[in-house]
Amino acid sequence: MNKYPTLFEAVKDAINLCDSWRFMYADEIYYKDNFPGIAQVYDEDSMADEDSFYIVAPSGAIGFSEDEGETIEWLFVRADNQKEKLPSSLAEMEG
Question: In this structure, what is the dihedral angle of CA atoms 92, 13, 26, 71, given to the nearest 10 degrees?
Fold first, then answer.
């Protein structure tokens, strides 16, 4: 399991695992063709602190942690599997 300093880096990995994602807090769907560009723009506008990172689940879901992995907030889930059970921490994901 890899940690990524930016959303763009996470998306570059995730596009190899699925074709589309749903943003958890809205009805927005992102597709592999345009998601990297959107992620790049987001990263330019947002700076994560040094303890923060993005993570990609084996399914392609993308999460974010601000506390070195003690909690994972899943931001983008597979559009074709929105009810996937995802781990709530890095320890749960690795264990």
Answer: 20
